[in-house]
Amino acid sequence: MERIESYASFGGHQDVWKHRSEVLGCEMKVAVYLPPAVADGPCPVLYWLSGLTCTEQNFITKAGAQRYAAEEGVIIVAPDTSPRGDDVADAEGYDLGKGAGFYVNATEEPWASHYRMHDYVVNELPALIEANFPASSKRAIFGHSMGGHGALVLALRNPGRYASVSAFSPIVAPTRVPWGEKALGAYLGDERDAWKAWDATELVATATERLPLLIDQGDADQFLAEQLQPERLVRACEEVGHPIELRMQAGYDHSYYFIASFIGDHIRHHARALKG
Amino acid sequence: MERIESYASFGGHQDVWKHRSEVLGCEMKVAVYLPPAVADGPCPVLYWLSGLTCTEQNFITKAGAQRYAAEEGVIIVAPDTSPRGDDVADAEGYDLGKGAGFYVNATEEPWASHYRMHDYVVNELPALIEANFPASSKRAIFGHSMGGHGALVLALRNPGRYASVSAFSPIVAPTRVPWGEKALGAYLGDERDAWKAWDATELVATATERLPLLIDQGDADQFLAEQLQPERLVRACEEVGHPIELRMQAGYDHSYYFIASFIGDHIRHHARALKG
């Protein structure tokens, strides 16, 4: 791994690294915040998954997370949102292809050879982080919008792997909303039954681990009614007794101003689980 | 004034407004954070002046100031860094013209007709803010780099106007460093004596008000030796007994990661003075 950016931040360091991903078949950038507590030994790792159009930069410049990560002694790892590079397939529009990996393993061409963000985030990246940084093997995951979908799905698909999971404004039912139908149709093909393995509202019905889901959602979010529909996940959880806390936040929208306002709550939530 | 952006943020609102400036002769954008405390009555106002190349956006997206402004009940006003528009003079390079107003009143053409950022920030903007927002007439000022220079110079030139002043990585002696020599030479002409009225190290020698100066400076700042030289201001203050606290911060650079790490300290410092 090659460090390409490094900034002192709240007594720790906000760095950006470049590395070759075998899973994705391309070079990737990943942001890593190391809190001052790494001087005293390995720290647990909180993975952040960003939303549509983002790179590894949006979260580290806008969310204000470093202060809380420093206070709690948690490493935050923020990967890019898709494979990158000239030989990686792309599409017109912001909601498919580069910047829109949806954290799935694609099965359809031209996507299948590079778009394997699930395996990258769940397996390859933690192995790299735990081998190259003062990181323990305690992991938690959270994200925003497409990345909130990613956090929920990755946690539900991989019981035991994450100590906790939370999401801001997540796409909870991608099999039933336009963003998800477009992306899952492209990456997984026309057979809709195959999409269900990447939909939190479907996965929660058969989850073997009752990992509590914490969700913050602004009630002034411009995507709430058409793309997000968090009440679908609440209903699915209620049907099987899966613990969920949906906090509707009055007046907040889909932006990083919303994320920044509640990121401290989420980081403290994860720190409790990671240290518990 | 017309509101062109509005985001819920830490219980208050981060807005961006557009207005016609008579002083600058153009349309300007200005960011205004209103803390939740405005519901209980007028709040004091802390003015932030940004550095070279910035607009009103950089500070509000990257500094993480809203949390502390909400906690302290302080309004933060962040103007743009120069006049804007097609009929405003500009120059090649990032350090003169648009994005580089240096908070002076220009006397030389082609700058003199629009580049009057001192009068805009000191007089016109506060009058607009205090007439249109739940703002008291208590004012404080801070800024970064070129904006740190601006904060120091505006406070020193206008005794009694600001309850407190602070700066991150300020250009403290623009008459003696390349950025300042280029800008002051263009805006004020070749007569170097005229530049001294816009140089904090010169102004402090004759200041009638002993307003304490708080400065944070990263010791890994890439501009420290050539452009910033804060020890010049410390020496000028020591010669006349002007109170100054220069805090050299180990490992920090010139970026917003540095600003974010210490913005809470500065906002609390100003809140104490504004409420004292």
From TrEMBL, chains A, B:
The keyword Nuclease does not apply. Its EC number is 3.1.2.12. Pfam families: Esterase (PF00756). Gene3D superfamilies: alpha/beta hydrolase. It comes from the Bacteria. Keywords: Hydrolase, Serine esterase. It is an enzyme of class 3 (hydrolase). InterPro entries: AB_hydrolase_fold, Esterase-like, S-formylglutathione_hydrol. GO terms for molecular function: S-formylglutathione hydrolase activity. SUPFAM superfamilies: alpha/beta-Hydrolases. The keyword Hydrolase applies. It catalyses: S-formylglutathione + H2O = formate + glutathione + H(+). Belongs to the esterase D family. Serine hydrolase involved in the detoxification of formaldehyde. This is S-formylglutathione hydrolase.
